[in-house]
Amino acid sequence: MSKKSQLVFVCTDCGVEYPRWSGQCTSCGAWNTLKEVNIKTERHRSKTEGYAGSRSEVQLLSEINLNDCQRIFTGIGEFDRVLGGGIVVGSVILIGGAPGAGKSTLLLQAIAHIAEHDVRVLYVSGEESLEQIAERAQRLNLPAEKIMILAETSVQRICELVSEVKPKVLVIDSIQVMYTEETQSAPGSISQVRECASQLTQYAKKNHVCILMVGHVTKDHSLAGPMTLSHIVDAQVLLTATDDARFRVLRADKNRFGSVGELGFFAMSGQGLKEVKNPSAMFLNRLEHPSPGSVITVLWEGTRPLLVEIQALVTDCQYGNPRRLAMGFEQNRLAMLLAVLGKHGGIYTSQDEIYANVVGGIKVSETSSDLAIVIGIVSSLKNRIIPQDMIVFGELGLSGEIRPVANGLARLNDAVKHGFTQAIIPKANAPRSPIEGLTVHLVARLDEALAIISTY
């Protein structure tokens, strides 16, 4: 085994290494992010081993035993949903979030439920004392008789103790404070995070242990550490707070055992995180006196529909350059929709200031909200109130056509459950049979949708 000291410069944003310092990282474009790191390069894995930690033989795909892919249920429905139905045995899951988001609380609640079903669990803390963890468990009224805890930051020592107590679920809080003796740099550095995650993943695959790792985030809400960290783990989820800090949203950014983009919703209380069974109710606020510019749309997040309110405000420009501000979706998307509205709707807003917002802090990544955004802008501009029992969804094309969206029927059925009686949807999403209690307005072009709302 060859060992030597090497001086490299590592970008703290993307983790790319350089032999010498420069002002800008050529990989991610960030300035002044290259930090000097002393690393000791050595081969701690043999050439025949990957992160699985064992030598593999050539097999036919049909010969693979899928019964080995068992899951452990956490007892928290929203958490299991995001993970694809539970924790796969032998998988490594990275949970990121800002300080105070509730990462440690969520994991402590999850392993408490798991331990109640006679599954051995171990909580390893590198940031908090054992007394602090015990105090949190008492405050949350969690059963602590079957939860094993450990205060340690050495990966080698953790693996030794895990081999002795043999837990099925292991929590590492957090990966940024762990260190391995095989790397000389300080804990939290790029090389330490990478090597610690590699060794823990290798141990999990070899011994069929589920590892849940807590990860810190940077000021731009991306996971701290090298990009290799995201590639090593099997699943990566991010826990964020809504604008009013009352709710928490858990999103799967990567999942080898489930769908990506799945959302889980929780309410933060004095007894910890509580599941929100009906997340649409979080973002819908039926006002006693409705106002122009408010439109309800149905998003598709993961495997379920989500009703959200989109608000638009159009006002006279007070200065020479009108402002266009979008909150919850891309700014460029708003500019494109305004261009289509002027070209194919005959409504020009070049001299107006326009503000659009997705209520509740939800980030819209799909295009099904295009029609709702445009109708909200027209509603505010013309001072027309859209009925509160109406939903709108559809993608808007550059030629003014209304394109269909996925899972149209499921969106309509969910809207009916919440008491909506009218819908403006793409013609291609027309249901095959009438939906009881719902009047559906089918539109193929933007001018047809504008003609419908002009009657209100």
Automatic annotation (TrEMBL):
Q: What CDD domains has UniProt attached to this entry?
A: RadA_SMS_N
Pfam families from the xrefs? AAA_25 (PF13481), ChlI (PF13541), Zn_ribbon_LapB (PF18073)
Instruction: Indicate whether Nuclease appears among the record's keywords.
Output: no
UniProt KW keywords: ATP-binding, DNA damage, DNA repair, DNA-binding, Hydrolase, Metal-binding, Nucleotide-binding, Stress response, Zinc, Zinc-finger
List of residues binding ATP: 97-104
Gene Ontology terms describing biological process: recombinational repair
State if Metal-binding is listed as a keyword. Answer: yes
What cellular-component terms does GO give this entry? cytosol
* MF GO annotations: ATP binding; ATP-dependent DNA damage sensor activity; damaged DNA binding; hydrolase activity; zinc ion binding
Region annotation (Lon-protease-like) ranges: 353-456
RecA family profile domain residues: 68-217
- Sequence motif RadA KNRFG motif, location on chain: 254-258
Q: What is known of its domains?
A: The middle region has homology to RecA with ATPase motifs including the RadA KNRFG motif, while the C-terminus is homologous to Lon protease.
Q: So what family is this one in?
A: Belongs to the RecA family. RadA subfamily.
Please give the function described in this protein's UniProt entry.
DNA-dependent ATPase involved in processing of recombination intermediates, plays a role in repairing DNA breaks. Stimulates the branch migration of RecA-mediated strand transfer reactions, allowing the 3' invading strand to extend heteroduplex DNA faster. Binds ssDNA in the presence of ADP but not other nucleotides, has ATPase activity that is stimulated by ssDNA and various branched DNA structures, but inhibited by SSB. Does not have RecA's homology-searching function.
Q: What protein name does the entry list?
A: DNA repair protein RadA
- What is the scientific name of the source organism? Methylocucumis oryzae
Organism lineage string: Bacteria, Pseudomonadati, Pseudomonadota, Gammaproteobacteria, Methylococcales
